[in-house]
Amino acid sequence: MDKKDYYMGKEGKTKSRINPVRELYKDRKLIKKLALNDFKTRYAGSYLGIVWAFIQPVVTVLVYWIVFEKGLKQGTDIVTQGIQVPYLLHLMSGLVPWFFFSEALMNGTTSLLEYNYLVKKVVFKISILPLIKIIAASFIHIFFVCFMLLVTMCYGIHPTVYWLQLIYYSFCLFMLVLAMSYSTCSIVIFFRDLTQLISIGLQVGMWATPILWNISILANHPVLAFIFKLNPVYYIVNGYRGSLYGEEFIWQSPWLTLYYWALVLVLFVAGGIIFKRLKPHFADVL
Fold this sequence. Notes:
By secondary structure, this protein is mainly α. Helix content is 67%, strand content 2%. Helix 3 (28-41) crosses helix 8 (129-154) and helix 5 runs parallel beside helix 9. The longest helix is centred in the middle third of the chain and has 26 residues, at 129-154.
């Protein structure tokens, strides 16, 4: 099979199904190379280079910490199983996955626009472009997960077997963003205002997740709490917190886990259909 046949189906028709696992394995070398290049070139030309990728999230965490814990005297926050933790840990365990979600979603959405010169190439497999952008964002996320664990240990919380679940929840987050990106990266080519709508949605979503506040305050409003829990990122944030200091295993929330993966599956199917339907028109519009 020659290179052209690999990227194109029979009689020039593109392959209909998007299988991210298969594509990640078959094109792993190309994806790794492009993801590293994307990460490096994003800050090329600046004096501090990739250091800027870490400065902004750190400053954001510090600002929220100073405002809410020092300014508004949040102090400690009661979380899962009645455990009290410093507000900074409660804040970081929500912001770290949210930073990745927001950055990866925006980058995945604009992946085809940014790499429009590759989209116009007949033999290039453009379905890997969202993967490339999301993997590039993962490098920063890995650093902040390690930083979060270090801060946690500084507060006297020692490593436990629950920390290994952070790998699972990071994978969940990766798959959610990828599933959403196949739809958004296809639609944004024809409707450029989508990036602004997503940006506004992320601002609202940060408060709806919840990250800066504890959902336990809605104990007397079970219907409202249930609505907030339908947000798929809530599953991730709650999982990070439960793994970091709540001593909660994955199988202790079976229905929430089932709902989450069912939603991700629906998003993948919808994204694959939208991507396939719109793909023949990408090059013409770009």
